[in-house]
Specification:
Layout lengths: L4 E3 L18 E2 L1 H13 L4 H18 L8 E6 L3 H15 L3 E6 L7 H9 L3 E4 L5 H11 L4 E5 L13 H15 L4 E5 L21 E5 L2 E2 L13 E5 L14 E2 L2 H4 L17 E5 L7 H12 L4 E5 L2 H10 L4 E2 L9 H11 L5 E4 L7 H18 L3 E3 L2 H7 L12 E3 L3 H8 L3 H7 L1 H11 L2 E4 L5 E3 L5 E3 L12 H14 L4 H23 L6 H20 L8
Parallel strand pairs: 2-9, 3-4, 3-6, 4-5, 6-7, 7-8, 8-10, 11-20, 12-13, 12-15, 13-14, 15-16, 16-17, 17-18
Antiparallel strand pairs: 1-10, 18-19, 19-20
């Protein structure tokens, strides 16, 4: 793997690295230890792994835009492997002409002969003594003139709150970063010091990173809150783990490079009928907008035709919002659930994908309609179906529903909906995340898209895929409706359900990120996403054609 990196975040930092590690695993500390042990058994020593990690860290530091002979890099070295990785990266940078200053905490991971080599390379050293204030004052002075700080204070095996003097060093680093406001960036080695690498807990002080370089695999705690707030952009660096060092059941990072090749192709001789047709079933007298947003998401995915099966008030609103849509006859499950189900069933075979649920309402009649559609009519056509929003509410009130419906559904719950479906407290769903989604997918025999700050896609008997970047701009009404429509639209164009789910999650997230970054918005509306989706899908398709990871900044 060398010094490859994966663009887990999409700010463009990783795109400036020359080589990449695509779709790294997400592991616990115990699993990472097993990977390292397997590497040692295969003849790859710990020192070799560290040397590779250090080269990757130095390359990443340079990709952050620092300049030789001009910029100062402060390296904070503590005990353990992360401290040693940071120190070796600092030595690389010193030899390449950077001004390097090393804060060496007590029990630091630097050996005497290495100290001499660092001095020979021009690095400045601050050796920690018991009376640590003087050393911390030196660190303060360095940080006031540095462009980059590398955090190697603690490693993945550390537990509990940071203790003195590392606690004070982390506090000084955070304060300098805050005061410098973007002119001092922090690169964390593997994890920001002070977080729990497994459960994402933070007790007391933790280093606030701008970029975290996960080494070999992403540590589970960096994708759990509150630790995720300290990670910044997540970059995944390979460390030459041999093929025998693997965790076959570990979740994987879902990034643009992992899905770029999944964008459906556009047939030059195609027409609207050959590009796929989506049927959106939903809406009610109280919820007019949800099915319209889903229809827009499907249409912007590139499918050839979107039809709506909705009540009359929704039809009137949709005629203005999406004039390209077509309609089935009158479909109003709240007033006539049996008649509505019959109308949908009569036309269902004409469509390559079905989406049911957005804005449907939670009345008893709506529940009756969903149960009839999924258990009685859908098996006749075997139409791939996305189940979202109020249709998920119906499932949660329908005992052993997974034994009564086909096994080719895509379920798209958020944490609250998953809590109702699984019977688990919402706090447990949020904390377990991919574990909860995996368990549900296996029990229900369905593709599960668990929406949240780190959205998860799970296929039964397959790995979980986790999107590694939280974006609060998506915390807005209707964004899930757009995602459900997007996934349905991709299915209609021929994508497998699981591929459509993975691609949809990434494209949806990137659309939000691009809008916020380009327009400098603090937040967005769900409808804003729809116009951006074709641009994102086009960029992904071009990247796949060029056999490169996409730069979507």
């Amino acid at each position: 793997m060398g010094t490859r990196a994966s663009e887990c975040g999409e700010s463009g930092v990783a795109s400036r690295l020359t080589r990449r590690l695509v779709a790294p695993d997400i592991v616990t500390v115990e699993q990472m230890r097993r990977l390292e042990a397997a590497a040692a058994a295969a003849g790859v020593s710990e020192r070799t792994l560290q040397a590779t990690a250090a080269r990757g860290l130095a390359e990443l530091a340079q990709a952050l835009g620092i300049e030789p002979r001009r910029d100062t890099v402060v390296v904070l070295v503590g005990p353990g492997n992360n401290g040693r990785d940071a120190m070796l990266a600092g030595a690389h940078l010193a030899r390449r002409g950077y001004r390097v200053a090393l804060y060496l905490g007590p029990r630091h991971a630097v050996e005497p002969d290495e100290l001499q080599g660092l001095r020979a390379a021009g690095a400045r050293l601050a050796l920690h003594a018991e009376a640590g204030d003087q050393v911390l004052d030196v660190l303060d002075g360095w940080l006031q003139h540095a462009s980059l700080a590398i955090d190697g204070l603690l490693g993945i095996g550390a537990r509990g709150a940071l203790r003195s003097p590392l606690k004070e060093a982390a506090e000084r680093l955070n304060r300098a970063r805050q005061e410098r406001r973007g002119t001092l960036r922090v690169l964390a080695v593997d994890i920001p010091s002070g977080i729990d690498a497994d459960d994402g807990g933070v007790e007391g002080v933790a280093v606030q990173a701008d970029v975290t370089a996960a080494l070999g695999a992403v540590k589970a705690g960096t994708l759990r809150f509150p630790a995720a707030e300290f990670v910044g952009e997540l970059i995944c660096l390979g460390i030459d783990l041999p093929p025998s060092a693997s965790e076959p059941d570990a979740p994987r990072v879902l990034d643009p490079a992992a899905v770029a090749s999944l964008v459906p192709s556009r047939d030059p001789a195609g027409h609207k009928g050959s590009m796929g047709k989506v049927l959106v079933v939903g809406g009610s007298h109280l919820y007019l907008g949800a099915p319209i947003l889903s229809a827009l998401g499907a249409a912007r995915s590139g499918c050839g035709l979107v039809a709506l099966a909705v009540p009359s008030p929704v039809r009137q609103a949709a005629a203005v919002a999406i004039p390209e849509a077509t309609y089935l006859g009158e479909v109003d499950p709240e007033r006539d659930p049996d008649g509505a189900a019959a109308v949908v069933a009569e036309r269902l075979g004409e469509f390559e994908a079905l989406l049911v649920g957005p804005g449907l309402g939670r009345s008893d009649n709506a529940g009756r309609f969903v149960r009839a559609l999924l258990s009685t009519y859908l098996p006749a056509t075997r139409t791939p179906t996305v189940v979202d929003a109020d249709a998920l509410y119906v499932l949660a009130r329908w005992g052993a529903w997974w034994e009564q419906v086909p096994s080719y559904l895509v379920l798209t719950p958020h944490h609250g909906e998953m809590s109702r479906l699984s019977g688990q407290p919402i706090e447990q769903v949020a904390q377990e995340n991919w574990i909860a989604a995996q368990r549900a997918a296996e029990q229900w025999r369905q593709v599960v898209v668990l929406k949240g700050p780190h959205t998860v896609v799970v296929v039964p008997r397959e790995r979980s895929w986790v999107y590694p970047r939280a974006n609060p701009a998506l915390a807005t009404a209707g964004s899930g409706d757009v995602l459900a429509g997007l996934i349905a639209g991709l299915i209609a164009q021929g994508a497998d359900r699981w591929d459509a789910a993975r691609l949809g999650v990434v494209a949806h997230a990137l659309a939000a990120q691009r809008l916020v970054a380009r327009r400098r918005w603090r937040s967005l509306l769900a409808s804003d996403l729809c116009r951006e989706l074709p641009r994102v899908l086009r960029a992904l398709a071009k990247a796949a054609a060029a056999s490169t990871a996409p730069h979507l900044g």
